[in-house]
Batch of 3 targets.
Target 1
Amino acid sequence: MKPIIVRGGGDLATATIHRLCKSGYPVIILECERPSAIRRLVSFCQAVYEETMEVEGLTCSRAESFEEALGRVSWNRPQLIVDPQGKCLEKYHPDILVDGILAKKNLGTRRDMAELTIALGPGFTAGEDVDYVIETKRGHYLGRIISQGAAIPNTGVPGMIGGYGKERVIHSPCPGIFHQEKEIGDWVEKGSRIGWVEREGAPASVCTEISGVLRGIIQEGYPVTEHFKIADVDPRKESQAHCALISDKARCIAGSVLELVSAYEKGVLER
């Protein structure tokens, strides 16, 4: 079969890619020049920086062109190219396209780009700019397949984990270049400095609001704007063992995408 195209290689998209590949589907990932994933240990987009990225036994490789990716891709060898605008889709018409950018808005995905188009999260309307939307908000509707309408709008407030919501997420205090001092998996106390932002004048410290496990932190040397998401702290001690594992939320979303892909392939997908 034709390779499935997935726009985006962050942690939620990676879970979907991993599930598809493990189910026998070849996948080509379209990424931007400088991905800003926080959960880098479970994000195939890291292949932009490191040429390859392994997540739970599956290794993704960066290709220099779509043609190269097309020649190398297989169900157990997902390929990534830098193509944020999806220019390869001007010449290549896939059977299935998944938008997993999670930008909370549509960055150019159209329903006519593939026979089946699926989008993760808010910013899309099923039945209009894509065929289906998958709910990504934690709660009872997580993973719900939407055939008409949109996902729950972005609230800007992270889901509750261990009694904490917005306190878990750390943002940049100012624009500049971020430098990390802690690693993913480290235990950090409330008020701990995890890094700093290089700027004109004195550097700005980046500190935690709660104690917990540093579940994710942005790429060293990343240029940030004020209030840019930099890191994520999980208050649960046991989460130290989970930093390199796909999350429960991501697996749920991935299962819904696989359901649609399988139904499409078998010719039983309801439109």
Note: The mean pLDDT is 96.
Target 2
Amino acid sequence: MSNLQANRTLSGSFAEVWVDGARIAELSELTLTVKVQREKVQFGMDIDSKITGYSGEGTMTLKQVYSRFFEVLEQARNGLDKRCTITTALKDPDAAGGMEERYSISGVAFTELPFISYKMGEVNQQKLPFRFRPSDLQCLDRIRTAE
């Protein structure tokens, strides 16, 4: 740990995101979370827990430059549940060993589509929450510790 230097910390400024292969340059934030479902298990007086499932959710925040994702609503109107693939890459030039972090999530289902959200004097942003199955999350590349 003593060899760790501050310049090795990663900056989201170097992140890139694609949805169904189209680069989303106006992205300002992306979060992915896997929530673990646990059930209580009691042995004698001790209460512990066991994992019984997990779910994935996230939010993509965009600075509004384009009108995006209206096709999701159009397909829902026709009874279709449009799913997409989100791919991320974090290529910070200062990353340890020049490595990068990349993920791909297929089967992404948007849970809200915020089409209109204007505030006078502010840059428009759209927050798009979504869900995914954790089994559809793939780590394509990771930044590893040098051992």
Note: Helices lie at 70-77.
Target 3
Amino acid sequence: MIFLYGIILILLMNTYGGYKVGYLKKGNLLYSQILAVIFTNVFTYLQITVLDKHFLTPAQLIKMTGLDLIVIITWTLAYQWIYTKAFPPRKMLLISGRRSDYHLMEKINSREDKYEICKVIDIQYGILLLEKEILNYDGVIIGDIESHERNLILKYCFANSIRTYNVPKISDILLKSSVELNLFDSPLMLSRNEGLTVEQELLKRFVDIIGSLIGIVIASPLFLLIGLFIKLTDNGPVIFKQSRLTKDNKEFQIYKFRTMIQEAEKDGVARLASNGDARIIPIGHLLRRTRLDELPQLFNILRGDMSFVGPRPERPELVATIMKEIPEFSYRTKVKAGLTGYAQIYGKYNTTSYDKLKLDLTYIRNYSFLLDLKLIIMTPKIMFMKESTEGVANEKINS
């Protein structure tokens, strides 16, 4: 039992990022460790209950969990303090290009414990000037610049042992997940550029059917309770249906609990929810924050419209708008849309479309059953993280 407890705890700690001291923010690190310990303790309690064939008093479990939390908080705060003293923020130079790097700067500045952007230089100033500046910093952030200039900077930084942080292009993601071939004395990278194999699709579909049936049975009390709250709040339909896109750009009707007022888009303009959106009904805020509004999608999974894991199903109108600027956005539909997914776990609701595309391509190009399992296990962690469900900024609601 102790051995199994240790294995489960290590697995969940590793999955949720509980060991990433100095990598995750302090609050995220604490949250990851606490979640891993709580899930491990609950699983162990259920295991003991099955072995003893009756429910035991949870008093000892609660005491042990409380002690665990005290140790976790003390250890994390102490170790983070030591890490901060040992590794002060790196002085960084940001090299910007044609595409705006505002969002990148905003994200990096949010981690002032790790990075400090001391200077921003446009690539148009020339490689010679950049080479002189690069030597004055601990690291270089290479924004979305042209491949030729980027290659020159990368080689220069490698020659001078200066670390680089690169914004990957779509072609980088495709190349990174290619297979290395050593048939000749010249290295080759093979990209098959296919979706899932037949065997992978069959296994994925089998898991979807079994998982959705179990999920529907377990969640049935929640369906009744949430439906009642929506009726009492707004007296309108409980289920909201909307056209979305799945594999091969096929349209389907997605099911969700209604979180907005009726006729929220009566002007006919498709828009994402924004921060402080007045269209959201009172119960809708809780449902969206915990993602419980997506529970009816279990029926979409059972029907075969969606999968448990895959790219977020987007609206045809929004996709058409996005593709005017990013034609590659349709690459996401090489697999079925998902209830959860790589972009949903590692991105946010308001992550830019370009970054969502790169995250989804990372999933598609690295697909495996174990990756699906990891993303499913990761989903409970992001359900209660505010930044994962926050709305888009008001100026971005139509993009």
Note: The first strand starts at residue 90 and ends at 96.
